[in-house]
Amino acid sequence: MCITESNIKKITAKQRREEILAHIRTHNKGDVNKLAQKYKVSTVTIRNDLNYLEKKGCVTRCYGGALLNDLFTFDQALNDKKKINSNIKARLGAYAASLINHGDTVILDSGSTTEQIAYHLQDKRQLTIMTNGINIAYQLASQPDIDVMVTGGTIRRKSYSLHGSNGEELLTGFRFNKLFIGVDGFDINTGITTPHQGEADINRKMVEAAQTIIALTDSSKFGRQSFCLIARPHQLNILITDSGIPPHYHTELIQMGVDVRIID
């Protein structure tokens, strides 16, 4: 699209920063002078934009501009996530399902790994499962021994997940045996993070509503972080992952009291 002066006036700082980030994600780098020329703003304004993005963790500042931060976790469509490490996710999901007992009350967070749990519950009896994943609710709906609850809220089209104050309020009225939560990014100091604020808000309510918190992640998510915090590492009771977990992560999590289960 050709950017005219009339278009420029309509672009807010937030929109400009989103466009700059999209540019850097595409080209792996953003040049201050070129971006200033493109948006008809000063180089000082662009430097402030890049500084803002660096504080968020998206980019790393360099001479004359900024580089994409490869360790930052960006939002991805669910169908794209399903294609990444799919065999490992299937094994993690099958193991996680084995931890669910007859009569359990369970929260299944939305996501491609947690969805795998739904495929391995056919032999379970008298379960109550709440989820914010439309795809997960669909998979569970045909299983006669599972009562399915959906959090409600606004749907995220990319991830088929629900978020919003209605779902958060609903969660406060229940207490569940187990929460199985997916991971976009897992940093040993920060914890579990996600790119979406609404997702983080409802995930934190899930953590508050569960007696046992179980995180599932393939090892590609370690060392990555995003905008919004869900849980600190010490809040987890169990972590299910594969043998690619960095050794110092494994050691430090055990020291925090987290039960680390490695599945290959």
Automatic annotation (TrEMBL):
Transmembrane parts of this sequence: none
InterPro entries referenced in this protein's UniProt entry, alphabetically: AgaR-like, Carb_Metab_HTH_regulators, DeoR-like_C, DeoR_HTH, NagB/RpiA_transferase-like, Tscrpt_reg_HTH_DeoR_CS, WH-like_DNA-bd_sf, WH_DNA-bd_sf
Alphabetical keyword list: DNA-binding, Transcription, Transcription regulation
Pfam families: DeoRC (PF00455), HTH_DeoR (PF08220)
GO terms of molecular function: DNA binding; DNA-binding transcription factor activity
Domain HTH deoR-type as annotated: residue spans: 13-68
Name of protein: Hypothetical transcriptional regulator GlpR
Gene source species: Photobacterium profundum (strain SS9)
